[in-house]
Design goal:
two-stranded antiparallel ribbon, Alpha-Beta Plaits, three-stranded mixed sheet, single chain, alpha+beta
Amino acid sequence: MFKGIKDWLLNLKNEGVEQVPDETKREFLKIGLIITGVFAGGSLFSVVSRVAEGFATPEELRESYPYKPHYSMVFKVDRCIDCELCMEACRKTNNVPEYGWRTMILRRYDESALDQKVMFMPILCNHCNNPPCVRACPTKATYKDKKTGIVRMASYKCLGCKVCMAACPYNARYFNEEKHAIDKCDFCWESRLSKGMTITACAEACPAGVRIFGDLSDPNSEVYKLVHQLAKPVWVLKPETNAKPNVFYTIS
């Protein structure tokens, strides 16, 4: 089943693609990535490392990341089996109500396949370097942590106006009725990372190794190695929004 997903990802065509804006290219160069291709009408693009291309040393690239640590997550999408253990772990760890969500698994049906294969796409807050939600919030209730880059919520400042929900390109927020405030993924900052743990609940719970969490500014981390490699395509969602997400997708 998952061979079909891998083939679909590897054989994305360049028909009718949009050009990546020069500003987007410059911003990715700042964090050590080079755009090498645009696929599926501009909704996905692959990136490769300046280290691999000989444009920067690992030490120079480490210093180019704006946050220390620079938290990121990579999804190996061909491994996802839609077991939802990640969602269950997130709800339990972060007290997410039944009607809410901090992470979700979308389904896409490959109608070109004879047996209509299902492809699974995990999503959560992309903790963007240029977050539209932060710019849209009238009270600064949503903000980007200056040290880690995690996009967080100060619930006591939230008016519940839902403007940030409308601004988010990834539909990664929901209104928490009990808090009367917007809630979202914070990479388990409050429940785990700030207490000395080094992995999110969803990544720890995944039995298939789909979710890889770590410090993108650390050349020894798995997320760094996955993003800065040439063997397989690496992409982000909705690059045309110029949000510059810190969540990446690849295949095994």
